[in-house]
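Box 3.1 A note on notation
Throughout this textbook, protein chains are presented in two layers. The first layer is the amino acid sequence; the second is a token string describing backbone geometry. Keep the layers aligned when reading.
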Amino acid sequence: MTEKERDILLDLLTKQATEGLSVAESKQLAALEGSDDDSFDLAAAAVMLAEFEPVEELPSHLRAKIAADAPAFVDQNAEQFLPKDESTIPAPDRKTPMFAWLGWAVAAAAVVALTLNITMTRFGVTEVARRVDPTPTQTPMSPAEAFDEMMAEPGMTVAKWTPAAKEGDMAHVTGAVVWSDKQQKGYVKVQGLPKNDPSASTYQLWIFEENQGDKTPIDGGTFNISSDGQVVIPIDAKLTAKNPSMFAVTVEKPGGVVISKREKVAALAKVETSVPPNA
């Protein structure tokens, strides 16, 4: 193949990879035995992908590690793209054009660049951070742990449960309530309430505070008792509660009520000025 023919072949391979060839040009490429050479297509595709705009930047320490490992990667994988020794390089007048090796060399470099670029910019920083972040995921606190934490904080509203009846199955109710006006949240810790059948009745918490008054206390949510022993329930106040003076638990129909007739009061808790010991 003459120098002129090699120049023509190079131009045709480049145009084929970037623009496409006309029918006449395809025939000319076939005549120069370059139709089966896809190295320039590979190089063009790799370069185009490598130029994609980064989505997120990889952490600097990982970027530095990948860059440092790149030369070794090229050395280990060069044989996939280039001939092992000079004896395997075809002569210019053989069937495989000499320019094919040029295309494969460009493709190899482009693929390495593509690998580094995609790894550094499009791998997914969230996934990388998850793999390298040594900080364990924090487990949410249980209601009992949240209750203890609030009880240890200064300025909390605290009330201690007393049974509403001196005799019967509700005569031994104990526990406490902790509430924060600022956070508008709190917890009930109670022991001694009998198990209830949710299909027949439910327990309902009421918050007596200065906005609603004693006649229409705020609904603090419903709950059921399914086991013996102590339970801790988050308060689900339906309205903003300000400066509570008392909490109450009543027995109501399933689903609870908007206004309680207070026909069956299970327990009362009057607000105290200090945290009760061993609550």
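Residues 143-272 form a domain with the Immunoglobulin-like fold (CATH 2.60.40). The longest helix spans residues 98-121.
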